[in-house]
Structure formats: structure tokens, C-alpha cells
């Protein structure tokens, strides 16, 4: 079945440093979504990418979708303590329909002040 | 801002007992989902529901699991005979279209 892989599993950074997490799917995706989960919290939708090569920005966060629509990345510039959490990428199990998401294992971002 | 709600927040049950986890999706949403997350692990899809029927289910969603939308607002997940390995956080999610999903705060299920 479809697999979504993320690296690294953990990332320790000093506050103010940049952070990047990478996501790879075993199959071509119709779209990819990114979620953030704070410790003890629930996944919160960040963004969705649909087009090949798409780049979207949200303040200090930059999201990319690969040309082949099989990989994606999230880059955070100048991390802040509020960025702490686990970042998950997720792809639909099938194209279209009311299908669930296959999540990656997530990257835990730990920030040292 | 509308949000998905879930009850109870924590459920403790004995192995072999039935549990029902309840969710109230966002009111104008059309697609409903259950996921689970074992402590420290990734979020795993269980089932999706649209137009009053199951749209897709994972291999985790076996005959011990069932879902219902008994009225216009609630969405429930029933586990008929709980096992120790069913201990996890169960998240309900809903969406208006097939993309962005809104997750509830979760129900922590502990099976003893």
C-alpha cells in the first residue's frame, strides 16, 4: 500500500535557526497536506499543495511540492519557541473521494532557547 | 470559530468491553473520519464516511469496529470487544470538501 516517509524523525535546533523536514511518497499524490501537532494536542491543518512544483509561503513557513508530485518539504526560517511540535505530511489514500489520509511518521521539532 | 468536539476526553475500559466514542463534526461538513494515534507514533487512518455510508476503511478497521451517524450532528465509533492494543488516542475529523480536514481534540482510550 501507499507509504509516506518523513525525515528526520527528530530535529533539535537553537532558537533562531532554520528547520526543514522532508516528505516522500511511494506513489504520485493528487495533493499533499501538512499538519502540526503540539505536544498533547491534535493535528492542525497548515496547508495543502496541489500543483506540480508548487511553492506556498505562510510567514516564516515555506512549503514545496515536487515536480513529480511524490515529495514535499516544509522549511521554517528563524525558528521560535512557538514552532515546537510535530510536523506531519499526509497524502490522500486514493485520488478523489472521501478517503482518509496516509500520514508520515512526523518530524519532532525541539527548540533550545 | 467552528470546531470538532469529542466526548469523552478519556475513557478507561476493561478488555472485552464495548466502547462508544462520540464526535460532533463541524455543522456544514460533509465528510467524516476516524483516526487513531498510539502514543508517540503516527496518525493512522481508520475509516471515512460520506453520504451516510462508509467510503473507505483501513485494514485496522476490522469487524470489531463500526461507525454511525445516528442523527444530524453526532458521529460515533464503536469498538465491540476492546483489546489491549486498542489503547490509543482516537481523533475524529471532518471536512467540507475532500481536502483540508479539521481534527477534534481526541479521546484517549485506555484498555486494561
Quick recap of the structure?
The complex is a heterodimer of chains A (113) and B (112). Chain A is mostly beta strands.
Mind sketching the topology for me?
The complex is a heterodimer of chains A (113) and B (112).
Chain A: E1 4-7, E2 10-14, E3 19-25, E4 32-37, E5 44-49, E6 55-58, E7 61-65, E8 71-76, E9 85-92, E10 101-103, E11 107-112
Parallel strand pairs in A: 2-11
Antiparallel strand pairs in A: 1-3, 3-8, 4-5, 4-9, 6-7, 7-8, 9-10, 9-11
Chain B: E1 5-7, E2 10-13, E3 19-24, E4 31-37, E5 43-50, E6 53-57, E7 65-68, E8 75-79, E9 88-95, E10 102-103, E11 107-111
Parallel strand pairs in B: 2-11
Antiparallel strand pairs in B: 1-3, 3-8, 4-5, 4-9, 5-6, 7-8, 9-10, 9-11
Low-confidence stretches of chain A: none
The most extensive interface, with participating residues per chain, is: A-B, 26 and 27 residues
> Uncertain regions of chain B: pLDDT < 50 for 5+ in a row?
none
Q: What is the count of β-strands of chain A?
A: 11
Features:
heterodimer, A: 113 residues, mainly beta, 6-stranded mixed beta sheet, 0% helix, B: 4-stranded antiparallel beta sheet
Amino acid at each position: 500500500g501507499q507509504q509516506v516517509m518523513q525525515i528526520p524523525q527528530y530535529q533539535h535546533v537553537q532558537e533562531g535557526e532554520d528547520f526543514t523536514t522532508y516528505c516522500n511518497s511511494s506513489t504520485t499524490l493528487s495533493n499533499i497536506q501538512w499538519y502540526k501537532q503540539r505536544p498533547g494536542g491534535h493535528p492542525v491543518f497548515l496547508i495543502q499543495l496541489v500543483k506540480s512544483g508548487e511553492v506556498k509561503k505562510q510567514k516564516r513557513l515555506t512549503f514545496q511540492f515536487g515536480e513529480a508530485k511524490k515529495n514535499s518539504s516544509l522549511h521554517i526560517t528563524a525558528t521560535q519557541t512557538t514552532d515546537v511540535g510535530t510536523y506531519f505530511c499526509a497524502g490522500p489514500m486514493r485520488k478523489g473521494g472521501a478517503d482518509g489520509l496516509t500520514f508520515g511518521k512526523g518530524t519532532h521539532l525541539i527548540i533550545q532557547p | 470559530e467552528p470546531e470538532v468536539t469529542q466526548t469523552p476526553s478519556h475513557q478507561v475500559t476493561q478488555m472485552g468491553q464495548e466502547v462508544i466514542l462520540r464526535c460532533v463534526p463541524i455543522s456544514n461538513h460533509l465528510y467524516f473520519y476516524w483516526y487513531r494515534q498510539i502514543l508517540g507514533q503516527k496518525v493512522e487512518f481508520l475509516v471515512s464516511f460520506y453520504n451516510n455510508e462508509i467510503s473507505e476503511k483501513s485494514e485496522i478497521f476490522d469487524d470489531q469496529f463500526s461507525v454511525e451517524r445516528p442523527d444530524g450532528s453526532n458521529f460515533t465509533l464503536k469498538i465491540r470487544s476492546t483489546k489491549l492494543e486498542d489503547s490509543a488516542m482516537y481523533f475524529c475529523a471532518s471536512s467540507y470538501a475532500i481536502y483540508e480536514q479539521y481534527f477534534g481534540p481526541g479521546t484517549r482510550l485506555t484498555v486494561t
